[in-house]
Fold each of these.
Amino acid sequence: MKVKKFKHKKIILFVCIILLVIIPIFYNYFNNIQENMSNKYTIICSRYNKNTDFLDKLSDTFDVKIIQKKNIKYDNKYVDHEVVNIAHEATSYLSYIIKYYDHLPDNMIFIHDENKSWHHEGLITDNINIWIKEYEKTDGFYEFNNSKTDSCQWCYTDDIFKELWKKLIPNKKLEDHTFNGKCCAQFIISKKTILLNSKQFYIYFYNWLIDNTNGEGNGASEDKYAGWRTSRFSEWLWRAIFKKN
């Protein structure tokens, strides 16, 4: 009996020693994964006035920045800067790109200010790593919304949209382009892809939206220069700008 007890004690001691060795290794391993993910991906959230507490669940793994629309009360540690409430998320995204153009993170995840929405599957907090895996199969641009931009037939004949297209993408013909991307402008993109265009390109795009959008928010739907329309111009343009085909 004494021999068996002694053996049991040895086994328990051995297991304890193994655990003491393995646990720190796994702890450091997963810590390094989180650090590498944080270094590789930054979440940029365009916020108006919705609750963005869900970002707390992502901040341990990712660098998180909120681009806040002006004149809206907020108390959030992730706010990086404010931007005018014009053309929805487009001016938020562009203001971030312009501000950080010379020192962008390796990869950026541009999102709206809601964890659950009709235009993406499930919760961002649940699916973000799945979308990142899909993004890593691409050439640096991945739209993770689930609704296609197949309802923009009027943009082909819209003179304002044609003008913006010619200014931004003169080497592509609008009539040859099919809007088979996703609506609502949420995507993952690489620094390399953004840097294919000059800083002046994004400044022009931003200023065009400011100068050619009447009022804030959606504006009047019948107004050809309302934010409802100029924001949708931007939704359709991201893919045309960033995709090679």
Amino acid sequence: TIMIGYFMESYHVGIYNVALPTAHLFLMPLAIFAVLFIPVTSELYSKKKNDEIKSIYNTMTKWLFTISIPALVIMVLFSKQLLSLLFGNEFAIASFALILLSLGYFYNTITGPNVHLLVTFGKTKFLLYVSVIGTIMNVAANVMLIPSYGIVGAALATFSTQLLINTII
């Protein structure tokens, strides 16, 4: 959002800022599950019950996928209608940005338990390194893409960063 404001007019920031929080809705199920996942897996890890951790991880990932896939279908197939309904017709131009952001945050959600599992295993330094790499990549991608592609470039930068970070993790 800051970089859109730097490279473009504030109008574009406003347009992008309807797509971004809408796509952030994908993070809610992961946040809800994480509240239970981390304490439970930490206790199991301390007791060396790795098979139970694997079972909980698999179940959580299936639930996150099952909960998130209908939202993804709606956001991809009906992005214009959704933005028009929620924010007004003038915001429908952010529909392709919403699609890209939704795909990125969907991937984040279905791979999200990986982050929480690494926290459980005490691999926070690794997560820091990946976050730094992701931040650098995101800034570089925004600098390259926003001047040419506007808010779609910003969404593509976020999408590709989400793919990279969560694939590495």
Amino acid sequence: MTAKQYSFESIWNVVHSLAVQGSAELYMHTLGPAIEAGPLMAAANPAGQFTVLVPLLSGEGFADQLGGAAIRLERTLVKGKSYASITCVESDLNDVFIIFVRDLVRRLPHSGACAGVVTDHVQHWRELFAQTKLSGLLTLPQAAGLLAELLTLERILSRDHARGLAVWSGPSKSQHDFRVSGHALEVKASLAREGHRTKISSVDQLNEPSNSTLYLSLFKFLLAPEGDSLPKAVRRIKALNVDPLEFELLLLRAGYRAGSEDVYGAYTLSISTEHTFDVTEPAFPRIVPGKFVQAQVPDGVEQISYVIDLAGQLDASLSQPQLDALYMCLAGGTTDA
């Protein structure tokens, strides 16, 4: 199954448009894929809530109800047939729910019972729904930071024939934004007109992994009416034929929601300067565990964040051929487990 066979968005647009015409009936539409028990169904009600119905085999065990703030799972009967009904309780999370359903469809077995897979999948996604609900929209500085990562990802993928997204480790809150065996890259963004300062969030952020290089890229952006934006960068990366669902999940974990494209499209930015540095050079300013006595952060110190000024490092930044070589290493390397 590929994403081109049908559009989840278009299916729910149809059932939702029928639902809001005034009837209290739950409008349903075949979702596309089928499992042994039958086809999945998409549904919507006049309140704007989206539901996916997963058919159950005769006698298939299933919990009567599993409640939740954003997503509800329960058994339901439709024309005498038993379904696992998964409803997005918060209609403002419908865009996230569509990604959830794509992920569910990919995981459902074509034969045999599916109730256990459905329950596990809902439990797995509960935290992501809750985080998305709480996080809200990305601020302009956050959007600039994500744009810097997407521009870097685009350059790496353009050199990687496999179009592997595992190199982008930033959304998983890893130590560094990009990582393959032997190489790591941290990406920062700044909207300041003057200076080359950037915040380092922890004592480990500029600490190179064992047997690995570590570089830091600093993108300086200016607001510009004809500049780049998150939706533009997302569309370009999708056009590189990456795995669309994997990419959407990474974006969601990075705080980007496709349902807010109108807002993010207004954040138009152009690169004023861009520099990449070898963090392991002796003169590079950084605080790492090796700077402390016995190479350990002192007991009782729970968090260290600091600001570095890279103005004095500009002459030591990578040349374009060196930067191209780094992107090739990140594109051709084996991602660490």
